[in-house]
Amino acid sequence: MPAGRLPGRKAATAAPEAPPIRLGYIDYLNCLPVYFGIEQGAVELDVTVQKGPPSALNRAFREGRLDVTPVSSIEYARHAADCVIIPGLSISADGRVASILLFHRRPLEELDGRPVALTASSATSVVLTRIILELRYGVRPAYRVAPPDLDAMLAEHDAALLIGDDALLAAQAYPEIPHVDLGAEWKAFTGHPMVYALWVARRELAEADPAALRRVVRVFHASQEYAWDRRPEMVAEAVARRGLPPDVVDDYFDLIRHEFGPRYRRGLVAFYEYARRLGELDAVPPLRVWGEE
Amino acid sequence: MPAGRLPGRKAATAAPEAPPIRLGYIDYLNCLPVYFGIEQGAVELDVTVQKGPPSALNRAFREGRLDVTPVSSIEYARHAADCVIIPGLSISADGRVASILLFHRRPLEELDGRPVALTASSATSVVLTRIILELRYGVRPAYRVAPPDLDAMLAEHDAALLIGDDALLAAQAYPEIPHVDLGAEWKAFTGHPMVYALWVARRELAEADPAALRRVVRVFHASQEYAWDRRPEMVAEAVARRGLPPDVVDDYFDLIRHEFGPRYRRGLVAFYEYARRLGELDAVPPLRVWGEE
């Protein structure tokens, strides 16, 4: 997707010749409360925004074409040395998340050796699925990657993982197919909130231009304040984009948390510990939060 | 209550001659997740801690005998010029809070002109009660202050406000008396989380010794990480102190949030706007968060 220069006045703290900050933007509903003010041009800033799926943003960030972007939790763990975490910002849920759903044709306890369809779009939710099935329910299915089409997935598999807007839509469209909410399963299993994604900055930017990073933190704050101050408009915008019922969107905006305080950090470290136990990570990475090193 | 020097090594960043930071500590369950690591001596720090009810801490802070302390949201609004907000820390709930309960003998819609007993211990919950009764239910009761004894309160009043541990205990002891949860009422009325308290630092300390304040922020972070890493022990400690059932305490630690991100800030500003409408505040104060001015 092409990058676009957003409207908005130049931040007063920016040097006149400072290049714009290049922000990534995952075009999922769960990011809307973070970007709504930016999108609406209501925040003083000098940034460009590149929208795309997580995999495209991850690649752009690794290749130095983005300065600040959301990355999935597992992606951070695998590249922690190259980046710093933006403080106070995540995509999390403290239990039910509504958008990471495992639909199943037979009870989870009976999935040992059975085919389970995963999505290619999110490594973090795949690891979460493994944690829940293998460590909570004690089964080891045969995983396969499949496109996010529930009918097709369940025609050939006993369970199917859907995430993001696909999951929200499928829960509406297939109320008769049982599913478990993997955020709720995680909470019941570990007691922790689950952190699905973080925002990171390139380490060299953070070191070379801390003022730019402070500007980014302020922009994200202001954009979120704008969003929560206009929640009905934000819900209406989300409804228009996705065709979901307003009450589903409204509930979702309550479930998704964008905080990253100590409790969420502990949840993230717990996730990394389980991922390591399953061989998905070599080690639990340190959480390098900008301003705290 | 006497101040006590806590164990724990001196923080490496503190100058050898730096005086200890004087922290206030409201001895309610909702503060335990913030102070558990400090209490257990598990955090590197050089602080003294003074425990007490909010009113005593407010006074000690105003008289310069505390450097950093929790204050109720209304207290902050009334003294915003003298202090700065510690970033990323509050006592909040996004809906049901379980510990701000209005017990009632008749429906809320019928309380116009009727006697309602308030507690003297918290100005913020008194203002919240007024917002819910007067602006949501459209009634104007006759308020009186009474000691927190539910039987005695309801002998002479049609409704009674209890807060904090008193409320948690009364909900257990009097399941037959109907009550509304004012956090849930606030959320249903406004859509916002409700921020009950903040942590503040004396402005002169923040300006004269920013390194000390950074140390305090780190100590609160580390103390919370310690707490959430040992949630079962923390629940057991709370059960031992209050005699509440473990599942009540565990549920309460899920409801109480200690975040203070943009969404919570908007909730706090909304609360101030309603308080002003009721004449409880002259103006909505700016949120002066340390490091953001």
Automatic annotation (TrEMBL), chains A, B:
One MF term in the entry's GO annotations: hydro-lyase activity
Keyword presence, Zinc: no
SUPFAM superfamilies reported for this sequence: Periplasmic binding protein-like II (SSF53850)
Top-level taxon of origin: Bacteria
Role summary: Catalyzes the dehydration of chorismate into 3-[(1-carboxyvinyl)oxy]benzoate, a step in the biosynthesis of menaquinone (MK, vitamin K2).
Family statement drawn from the similarity comment of this UniProt entry: Belongs to the MqnA/MqnD family. MqnA subfamily.
GO biological process, one term: menaquinone biosynthetic process
The EC number(s) this enzyme carries: 4.2.1.151
Name of the top EC class for this enzyme: lyase
Entry keyword set: Lyase, Menaquinone biosynthesis
HAMAP family referenced in this protein's UniProt entry, alphabetically: MqnA
Protein name per its UniProtKB record: Chorismate dehydratase
Reaction catalysis annotation: chorismate = 3-[(1-carboxyvinyl)-oxy]benzoate + H2O
